Amino acid sequence: ICWFDPRADQPPPPPPPPPLPRLLLSTDLCSQHAVGGEMAGHGSGNLVVDDTKRVFQPSTLYDGETSVKVDLDGEIVEVMLHPENGPLVLKVDGSEPGPTDTVKLPRAHFCSVDRSSMNGLRKPWSQWTSTERKIALHYAAKMNKQRMALRESRRAIADGD
Fold it and tell me: Cα separation of 118 and 138, whole Å?
């Protein structure tokens, strides 16, 4: 009996690539595990890169400010800031905002394993990053601009009748 081995004439397979350096973000610990199966940085709110911990530093951008002027396509819109809740938006009818009429961040993700970083609607202004603060301020300015325009158009219609 003669057996034919199709791999006999082929070169050996290439060696596997070297392992990648370990990079683990604590905000994505639901599916990422450290070497040895242990959860790195669990509950600490730290960024783990090659066993280096970096503690989150909240932004101080706009701290102490009561209002900020935002340039929207050449038009300056003033946004009031609540010291604990962040940018205030006018009510839908264009009237002045109340203390709870603030920009709220959408909930980015939910991870039942990692509770180290706050996110989404429950995140207080004091824990927002500088990028989140800038985006929220710009978003509030756009909303306020639209609501002020709606208020003015309603006044014009009411005055014209």
Answer: 22
147, containing H or E segment: helix 130-160
Strands of the sheet with 86-87, listed across from one edge:
67-72, 75-82, 86-87
Distance, CA of 53 to chain centre: 21
Pick from 69, 103, 106: nearest CA to 88: 103
Q: Given CA atoms 40, 43, 47, 51 in this order, what sign does their dihedral have?
A: negative
- Predicted TM-score of the model (pTM): 0.60
CA atoms within 13 A of residue 48's CA, in its CB half-sphere: 21
Q: What is the pLDDT of residues 16-68, one digit of tens each?
A: 887 766 655 544 444 444 444 444 444 445 555 566 666 778 889 999 999 99
Burial class (CB within 10 angstroms; exposed 0-12, middle 13-18, buried 19+) of 139: middle
Question: For the segment 135-144, what is each residue's pLDDT rounded down to a tens digit?
Answer: 999 999 999 9
DSSP-derived letter for residue 37 is G
Amino acid at 145: K
Please name which of 89, 84, 66, 69 lies closest in space to residue 127, comparing C-alpha atoms: 84
The H or E element containing residue 82 is strand 75-82
Name residue 136's amino acid.
A
